[in-house]
User: What shape does this take?
Amino acid sequence: MSEIERYLDSKLGEDVDRRGFLKLSASAAGLAALAACGGGTVTPGPSGPTGAEFKLGIVLPYSNVYAELGSSITNGIQLYLNKVGNQAGNRKITVFKEDEKVSTDDAVAATKKLVEQTSVDMIAGYVLSPNAVANRDYLTSNKVPTIIANAGANVISRAKKSDFIYRTSFSNWQPTHPMGSYVQDKLGLKNVLLVYANYPAGAETAQSFRETYTGKFAAADVAPPLGYTGDWAVWVSKITAANPDGIYVFLSGTDSVGFLNKANELGALKNIKVTGSGFFVEQDVLGSVGDRAPVGAVSGLHWALTLDTKENKDFVAAYRKAYNKPPDVFAMDGYDTGRVIVDALNAVKGDTKDPTKFLAAIGAVSFKSPRGDFKFDAATHNVINPVYIRELVKDPQLGYTNKVVATVAGVADPGK
Amino acid sequence: MPAVLLAVLISLPFWTPSRYWVSVAIQALILAVFAMSLDLLLGFGGMPSFGHAAFYGMGAYACGKLFPQLTGGGLLAFLAAGMAAGVIAALPIGALAVRARGIYFLMLTLAFAQMVWGLAFQWTSFTGGTEGMSGIPQAVPDWLQEQGQNVWPALRTAGPFYVVALTVAVLAFAGLTAITRSPFGRALEGIRENEGRMRALGYPTYRYRLAAFVIAAAFAGLAGATTALYNGYANPSQLYWHTSGLVLIAVIVGGTRSLLGAVLGAFFVTIVQLVISSYTEHWQLLLGAVFIAVVLFLPGGLISLGRLGWLRR
Assistant: This one.
């Protein structure tokens, strides 16, 4: 209530004629109603935005296997929007969420609904690459400014690059490319085995690794299906049989948990160096494997919870405060997505009538992000990421987490 | 009843509050064609296929694979390619599957469909893997595109394609009605009721069943081609058993042995899926509950509800 009182006080100090008073009572009534609705989320700025509502459509999975990613990204976006009072460029930002589910048909239906029924001004989201690719033509032909906040398919920055789509997360190529040479030159591994989920992102990661690692491979790649629910011993024993001096892993979520648990149980990783693309030891996985975490694992990713910068510390603290748990890389991508939208809206002063101008403003956004310097690559519409090479440690305060040991700045997708 | 439904559908673009509802109607019409094709197998032929998505997906993939070549031929070339793909896939699969009956037929069709899905999923160089193929044009004829933009400027591209989807659905309904009322259709129902007697009467029942399987696959391919044109992509999810299951639910909820029932079921499932799912993540629960209720209390499906009962067949 104090918020409303303060607002009224500030208004009452002004010279109020009869019409102004009516308007004021109406808005006060509106505010009271909002507060009564258990708001607290609505914080009118000193004057409140007077422009038209900016409708932000979000397509992310809220059910099934990827619900965790969807909620992390949403939390990240929301955290930034709340930070700026849910407004930018003199427009109130309203979020409309639709469930991406798993199948492409559902993701396309969700997108159509937001564009055609809700008439959103822009769309952000897409966890799964096939869904991002399938929606690409529809979004482009309907001129909907779009930000992809997770899906990593290289093709989105390459053959299927769109004037209307930017990506704030990564291409599958990015986190692994610097790792190939690091594994070879700095870690001195000469006989590596690739372990990845058998789907396009896994294959693209393996391809990226082969571009910079020129050494020997211990055996044919170990590639269990995505979302594997069988006995992981089958795959872990292939590693033991191949006897490599190191493995490079690209698994995420439940796959990574299943793999790490079984590998630990069988002692398969004791004498070999564990490396990989950062997702397999991200905070979501570490929370589940507990003491079975492969301490000493070296992985590449565009963020780490422990990054020692002011931006990251502020982000982590704010996220913990709001959601009572540490953020993961997906939440960070969401947070930056929120910031890109807000900065671009401010840059065009809320005028999004001309999508080309608004998109140019999105492309020009750059700032100090929790991940480091955030900037889009004009050629690919993909974010230029720093890649942090991290080592898994047991921190007395944070528990199992990744500590940055080296940084490769400005890793941009080659675009072809 | 068909006349009322048709009148509602024809007038839809003139009173709909937003073009989203035209999109929903297009999805429902495509599913209706797909459901009617399954109804020919399940309702009229008594063959419970759990792999009908194979032919639907094949129709979509044919458009995705051939669109550079087909674009010159226009809309009809795409639709014909979809039907042909359904037929080509159904001949070998049907030749083996229709030898089995009941649950064995169901398992065989499921197994073949999962093989087709596996092929599309794994053979990345030919099918595009999980990402499938995109960039398929809508192939709406120019005159319709122009007229459509004039008549429904607010609907944009949804308007002209709505005409395509509605025409395809009406023609499929008419075609399948003619088939089910022909001597062939009657013989098929005879085989469903008592195959031994039909064989004793001199009907080559295996060929009848195979013919029904292939015709159903052709219409499923037609539905698949329409969805590929509308959405612009072909994707393994269109081949997956979820899709087979969804169309099976549509037919059973709407009412087997009635093409109109299949249409009603398709609209019901689409609305539950697209509209209810925005309000709750538990839309599948609702669909499941309705499915159980229909199976237990309304074996004839929604079409047999109340006074509509006399309209069946």
